[in-house]
Amino acid sequence: MREAYHVELDNLADRLSGMSSQVADAMERATRALLDSDLKLAEQVISDDVKVDDARADCEEKAYALLALQAPVATDLRIVVAALHAAESLERMGDLALHVAKAARRRHPDPVLPEQVRAAFAKMGEVDVRLARKAEEVIRTKDVEAARSIEADDDEVDDIHRNLFSVIMDKDWPHGVATAVDVTLLGRFYERYADHAVSVARRIVFVVTGRMPGYTGSDV
Amino acid sequence: MREAYHVELDNLADRLSGMSSQVADAMERATRALLDSDLKLAEQVISDDVKVDDARADCEEKAYALLALQAPVATDLRIVVAALHAAESLERMGDLALHVAKAARRRHPDPVLPEQVRAAFAKMGEVDVRLARKAEEVIRTKDVEAARSIEADDDEVDDIHRNLFSVIMDKDWPHGVATAVDVTLLGRFYERYADHAVSVARRIVFVVTGRMPGYTGSDV
């Protein structure tokens, strides 16, 4: 049973790694669609989201099979449940990339973002994608060193996000209320994506190593 | 074992019902704090959030005990996993109520909301709280009829939320960008709370009845 358990756990980890890669690609493309007002790319992100949903359903089935057939206990059990939570967060990250792509499509051919905040979004997109790729890397290489810098990346997104608000709220903001609302919501999507990515990366480290990095609560 | 399983499942359902009640209270108070600029009430919501986090940890422990000791399969297994997901969503609902309370505290003694949007937030708060209380009721009474109107309630929040945007984005919006940003984020918190409440209510119906209402995917 231990042998079968580990083979099935590896399959589940591979699928989670694939999902991390899918949602990293989705956010990379959505950010490019947003910055370049690229309708075709936005449409691609929107139509690809169903693949993320399918991958999540498949992860759940693999986790159910593990639980039902292997009846793991103790740490083994927590690892499978962590994988279930990670799959849920990854699906949500896909949804957030989808929201970004939909914003790009809604305003097309106009740009959504004024020049003043383009750099902030380019940077948030870059860090978000990096976070998702780290999660993927941790699984592929089983090298949890890659997970060490996760918190720093998340802090970077939070800093850019906070700074974005001071730009929008400045009394000299010249772009009007509608643009401020778009920028506010988009900023929130990037910030939430990073939060989920951190949570996924921690859980994936746990799935790979059986230990939760920098974690003191019971929220595995 | 079947007897023990059902006793433990009832315990878990009770704890989820308690969490639903906690997050309903939190959103009710946060909305009052927001509308009345009531600092004391806002502080109470903020300090009570740790109790929701504790309840979630306790639900997880109960679910782990069920999985490890009873090794449920098939529908029984899916029910326990649904409870785990429901606990996660309920914790998130608590966080969203916390965000509302923090907004009320941040602007105190000034009101966060201009007169023009007060009614919309009063209504969204009312429907959000009603959704959380329905989840609680379904568990307590095991009467899933209460769950039937969940989708309609969620549609109501979505309608108010959409209408809110047209108010903010109107070119005659006289309250400036900073207020529009506050209103945008607060609107998003109420909308997300309702989304999570719907997901929780469906999962709770599944925990109680073993059947997912109006659900066609595998996302239990």
TrEMBL record, chains A, B:
Chain ranges of the PhoU domain: 17-103, 122-204
Name by which UniProt lists this protein: Phosphate-specific transport system accessory protein PhoU
Main location: cytoplasm
UniProt-listed InterPro entries: PhoU (IPR028366), PhoU-like_sf (IPR038078), PhoU_dom (IPR026022)
Subunit details: Homodimer.
Organism: Prauserella cavernicola
Subcellular localization: Cytoplasm
GO cellular component, one term: cytoplasm
Function: Plays a role in the regulation of phosphate uptake.
Listed GO biological process terms: intracellular phosphate ion homeostasis; negative regulation of phosphate metabolic process; phosphate ion transport
Similarity comment: Belongs to the PhoU family.
Gene3D superfamilies reported in the protein's UniProt record: Phosphate transport system protein phou homolog 2, domain 2
Keywords: Cytoplasm, Phosphate transport, Transport
